[in-house]
Amino acid sequence: MIYFDHAATSYPKPPEVLKEASKVLQYFAGNPGRGDYSLAKNSGRYLYQARKTVAAFLGIKPSANLIFTDGCTASANTVLKGFLRPGDHVVISSMEHNANWRPLKALESRGISLTKVNLLGEVKSAVSRLENALTPSTRLFVTVHGSNVSGDLLPLEELTQCAHRYGVKVYCDMAQTAGFLPLDLATLGVDFAAFAGHKSLLGPGGVGMLYVREAKSLVPFKHGGTGMHSESPNMPDFLPDRLESGTPNLMGIGGLIGGIQYIQNRGIDDINRQEIALTERFLTGLETMDHITIYGPGRGMPRVPVVSINVGNLSPQKTSEFLEEKAEIAVRSGLHCSPLAHETLGTLGRGTVRFSFGYHNTEEEVDTALDVLDHMRHIL
To answer: What residue segments make up the domains of the chain, in order of their start?
Structure first.
């Protein structure tokens, strides 16, 4: 199989992922912070060191401000439902995933108000559009970093600076950029950020992360045992415990550490160069095909390795099925859980076929896909 669906989840996983997850199951299978015997203590030490490793990789200081969750969606819900109150106004980019959009729509029914803004295009214009959308009641700006539909990279630093000038907090969905771009949360300046462990970070499913700048800025979304201060009926007021109740997914966290080990050993810049080179090769080939419609930034533009297309008047589902039938190529068709992005691109009624490239894909695989797509002109 030629796997071009890394924006959904990375596959196959590097050997380091299985090795580290297996090590955790074998040697660190106790419940961290929930026992005075060596297995539990060693598991707690592993969790502590894993948090430091992931935080350092993402540029998060102190490491306690990194919260482990069960995925990017859980991180989004923790922020949005823990920060917003009735009467608050939220500005949201028009490229958001349902992980952000659906919680906000649920909160809208409870008294928050929403404004969508198209922030694609030239940086100065995007910042101006954001500035015009802010009001005295705006408390939060929500934006994706890299689009899972079009591959667009939004100018996060400039948008964050704009929001902060008006006292507005910033939450960023970094599901598509963590592991693909070197990130330094201190430099980017956001107040909250969500990460998926299973995409470009190459870890297993079921593990995500949340960055929180200020410990008491969020009301806990989930309540329960933390292994500390058990005498109190209230959640602790310090991180990570305030937002991290229940038994952690230590095996998943171990797999995430294995993914980061692979990235660090190979070099994130090398992975980035390879994935962008494959994306550029794909775009160059597509430009010769007049039966293909391409959505998103053109060649040479800042992006993540995601390209959406349509083939003539074929449905995305038919195109996807044809690619698998002819060359065992796996791609994603439809709306990609991002109807706002498709509305922005003008593809909401139809969807697109999405190609997303990963660390192990090759030029030969890209060329195979191009050959099949070129041949499809004969079936239209």
So the answer is: 15-264, 268-379
- CB < 8 Å & 24+ apart, contacts of 265-271: 265/16, 266/359, 268/179, 268/180, 268/181, 268/182, 269/182, 271/179, 271/180, 271/359
- The identity of residue 201, as a single letter, is L
Strand locations in the chain, DSSP E? 2-3, 66-69, 89-93, 113-117, 138-144, 169-173, 192-196, 208-212, 292-295, 306-311, 329-330, 332-334, 352-356
CA-closest candidate to residue 297, choices 174, 175, 154, 151: 151
The CATH fold assigned to 268-379 is Aspartate Aminotransferase, domain 1 (3.90.1150)
Cα angle 272-324-313, degrees, rounded to a multiple of 5: 95
Fold of 15-264: Aspartate Aminotransferase; domain 2 (3.40.640)
Q: Are 182 and 189 in contact (CB under 8 A)?
A: no
Contact 275, 357 (CB under 8 A): yes
Residue 318 neighbours by CB under 8 Å, 6+ apart: none
- Structure-token pair, residue 162: 């704009």
Q: How far apart are CA 227 and CA 183, in angstroms?
A: 31
Give the Cβ contact number of residue 23 at 10 Å: 15
Mean pLDDT split into 10-residue runs, the chain, 380 residues? 99 98 93 84 93 98 97 98 98 98 97 98 98 98 99 98 99 99 95 99 98 92 75 80 90 98 98 98 98 96 98 97 98 98 98 98 99 94
- How many residues in total does the chain contain? 380
pLDDT tens digits for 183-233? 999 899 999 999 999 999 999 999 999 999 998 899 998 888 766 677 778
At position 49, the amino acid (one-letter code) is: Q
Whole-angstrom distance, CA of residue 268 vs CA of residue 201: 10
